[in-house]
């Protein structure tokens, strides 16, 4: 993706080197357990929406500040995700306006090791996530390496897809869709709740595709970018992850959708470029 010289978002919070102090008991400890558990339940994949832990925003845990020395590659990546975020702001502001709505820009928090969010304390191992409680996206830039090495999904546009997917969860929060799904928790069976979560995740993939559509139209995509995003979507499908982890799949436990579904919904959004057509909740088939 062409990003040199393009507008960078002002809504990026650099919290690298400010990892939350040793988590051992207290509020931070509870948060950590809940967040990690939730992530494990959702397959240990990426792109999770972490619902609020309890109803109240947690107090900030003590933070240890030390100078953070970033590599050149990381600085470049920081610039890249800032451009991606800026572009999601432009695209979604326009789409919301066209639909008579006002887009509220989210904040992207870049962290290292661990971070305090309104959804609790999270370690880098949870992968990128969106917290509806504070309207912030949280990404540890080391995830870029993980995409490349563990998920075999290299390329800058794989990372752009991840950011755009998390922004998709923000869009769902602004539209009230996430709240409806999270309200089902403890009201329906686990299998039913998981099925609703899959729809939410596939819709976030669709929204990521919508964003990519506008990148293409503006002439920012490089050859191979679409494939990079699709490779990433394929690599983090529930079936693929479960097969790698256990050697078999349990469809009722899917929370993000299969590789095929994730790719397809991303492509659907990429084709249309509009918010309409992304209603995974009423789609005849997922
Ligand atoms: Zn997600």
Automatic annotation (TrEMBL):
GO terms for cellular component: membrane. The chain crosses the membrane at residues 20-41. It comes from the Bacteria. The keyword Endoplasmic reticulum does not apply. It is a single-pass membrane protein. Keywords: Membrane, Transmembrane, Transmembrane helix. Its main location: membrane. The keyword rRNA-binding does not apply. It is found in: Membrane. This is Putative neutral zinc metallopeptidase. It comes from Metalysinibacillus saudimassiliensis. The lineage of its organism: Bacteria, Bacillati, Bacillota, Bacilli, Bacillales.
């Amino acid at each position: 993706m062409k990003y040199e010289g393009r507008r960078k978002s002002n809504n990026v919070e650099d919290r690298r080197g400010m990892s939350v102090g040793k988590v051992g008991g207290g509020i931070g400890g509870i948060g950590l357990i809940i967040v990690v558990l939730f992530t494990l339940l959702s397959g240990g994949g990426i792109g999770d929406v972490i619902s609020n832990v309890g109803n109240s925003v947690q107090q900030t845990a003590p933070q240890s500040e030390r100078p953070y020395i970033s590599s050149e590659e990381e600085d470049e990546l920081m610039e890249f995700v800032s451009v991606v975020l800026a572009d999601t702001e432009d695209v979604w502001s326009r789409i919301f306006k066209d639909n008579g709505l006002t887009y509220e820009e989210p904040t992207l928090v870049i962290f290292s090791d661990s971070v305090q969010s309104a959804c609790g304390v999270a370690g880098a191992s949870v992968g990128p996530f969106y917290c509806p409680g504070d309207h912030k996206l949280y990404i540890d830039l080391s995830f870029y390496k993980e995409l490349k090495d563990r998920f075999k999904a290299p390329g800058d546009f794989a990372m752009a897809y991840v950011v755009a997917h998390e922004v998709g969860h923000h869009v769902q929060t602004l539209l009230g869709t996430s709240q409806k799904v999270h309200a089902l928790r403890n009201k329906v069976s686990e299998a039913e709740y998981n099925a609703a979560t899959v729809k939410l995740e596939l819709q976030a993939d669709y929204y990521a595709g919508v964003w990519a559509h506008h990148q293409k139209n503006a002439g920012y995509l490089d050859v191979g970018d679409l494939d990079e995003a699709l490779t990433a979507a394929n690599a983090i499908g529930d079936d693929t992850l479960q097969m790698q982890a256990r050697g078999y799949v349990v469809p009722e436990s899917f929370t993000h959708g299969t590789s095929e579904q994730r790719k397809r919904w991303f492509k659907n959004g990429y084709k249309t470029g509009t918010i309409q057509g992304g209603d995974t909740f009423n789609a005849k088939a997922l």
